[in-house]
Description:
By secondary structure, the protein is α/β, with parallel strands linked by helices. It has one domain: Purple Acid Phosphatase, chain A, domain 2. It is 28% helix and 22% strand. The strands form four sheets. The chain has a five-stranded mixed sheet. The protein has a five-stranded mixed sheet with strand order 6-7-10-12-11. Strands 2-3 form a two-stranded antiparallel sheet. Manganese (II) ion binds next to helix 4.
Amino acid sequence: MTRRKKKARPAGERKAALLHRLAETRNPVALRKARGPFDVVGDVHGCLDELLALMQAMGYRVEREGKEFAVTQPHGRTLAFVGDLVDRGPAAPGVLRLVMGMSRAGTALCIAGNRDAELVRVLRGGAAQVTRGMARTLDQLAAEPESFRAAVLDFLHELPSHLVLDEGRLVIAHAGLKEALQGRSSAPARAFALHGDLTGKKDATGLPVRRIWAAEYRGKALVVHGHTPLSAPMWLNNTINIDTGCAYGGHLTALRYPERVTLSIPAKRIYYPPRRPFPPNHTLKGR
Length: 287
Ligand SMILES: [Mn+2]
């Protein structure tokens, strides 16, 4: 794997570049001191149009430069993605270009989602299950140059399992993370952060059954996560699920931090029919 060539950067970009390199270490506490403000975006799943609309609604200015994007962020805010950039939606390469470019510029952070990690396995030729959703991503990537696929593999492989931010007050993890595992680089922390609290059982539709860890969460950090699509963002204890199923025809949602305000953009259409209807939020509340 070849590394990106270093270019001379203006002094102002150096701090951002340093943040980027720290984040590249996969170390979940490398950015513990980063205070934000952050705009945390839920599972994008290749929904580029909705991502651009959401960014615009939050005051980001995005200009296309050929296939790349030039982004000006509002008041030094940083975008942060909860992972699952790919699969199901129509434009995974565009989403990846945008997020990778912003990551390089130090204006976006991203963590791994289970679909991103699965794509890494498939691109490396390892054994993995190619779902219909992923087949769509692979088709989209096949139309891109080999150098882009290599850069995607490099980028996705380096994503941390989760991030601890704002001196420990904010944790971003794709499927969430219980307090005892926050800041850990261990395999159990990565498994929980990517897949959630799995019971090992499957439901009638063949999907894994997960414990609702957030119902018992009493941690000090606000945990922002996605992974399980709901019809609306849901606060539960000190956690929020912002996966509102954009690829399934729902919404793409962001949580603005520290404001704790959500903003949702409706999907332009159903890109991928869900295997089971989104659970109504009330069925997940408490016990
Ligand atoms: Mn997921």
